[in-house]
Amino acid sequence: MLPKALTLTHQVAQQLTRDIGDGVYPVGTKLPSGKDLALRFGVSQSVIREVTERLRAHGLIDSRQGAGCTVTARTQSGGFQVPQAVGADRADLGAVYELRLDLEGASAALAAVRRTDADIKSLESILQSLADHLYTPEPAVELDIAFHVAIAHATHNRYYVDLLQYLNLQIRQAVQTARTHSLALERLPDAVHREHVRIFDAIRAGDALAARTAATSHLQKAAARLNLDITPRQQ
Question: The pTM is what?
Fold first, then answer.
């Protein structure tokens, strides 16, 4: 049985998809703000974030930080799709993690070569905030995701960012599940944080091989914490 939050996400996404298809929100117009949508549907803003990520993944909207969500199409894209809910198909979720191993391992390696001082400051700031919220579930999830996205930005290759954003819904649900599990085990969030720090240290040092190794090791351990069977990678 799927968690209630995922059911709410599915229900709200279905309604907004119908609204867009029916022309309630025409192509080129903006959706209401996250706060307004949360009030309309009686859900949290975190649910609305998952909904908009799902709509973006289906090619219905485009979202930019500070600019809101703009409708880009009335019908869903028929392109590449990934599973929408953690636990819906564990084999598919494991496959997503295998994809993340290659994507984020390469992203970390490239970030180590191309990172700027501004990138390092951004990563350092996120890590500090994460350290302050390790045992606070919702901020920890958002900051965890922000850390991985900031690494993609540090590659200075927009397609790493675009692909990671496409997978953002699946990543958020996986991180939520992993962090819920971690909070049930004493000091595990601290161990996860040390994995993030190792990735950061390698990127700051400009060591591409160490960055790749630290990123793939972190994701392998994250998958193991979710009891996912993924193929071991040779470093």
Answer: 0.66
- pLDDT (mean) for 39-62: 86
Looking at the structure, do residues 97 and 41 belong to the same domain, yes or no? no
Task: Please identify which residue in the block is written with the tokens 């703009």.
Answer: 70
Going by pLDDT thresholds of 50, 70 and 90, the confidence category of residue 1 is very low
In a shared domain, residues 120 and 169: yes
List the one residue out of 70, 81, 139, 110 whose CA is nearest residue 203: 110
Token code pair at residue 177: 């599940």
CA distances from 120 to 62, 140, 200, 203, 233 (A): 28, 20, 8, 8, 27
* Residue 170 · residue 86 · CB < 8 Å: yes
65 shares its domain with 94: no
Looking at this protein, which amino acid is placed at residue 93? L
Within 8 A by CB and 6+ apart from 92, the residues are 82, 83
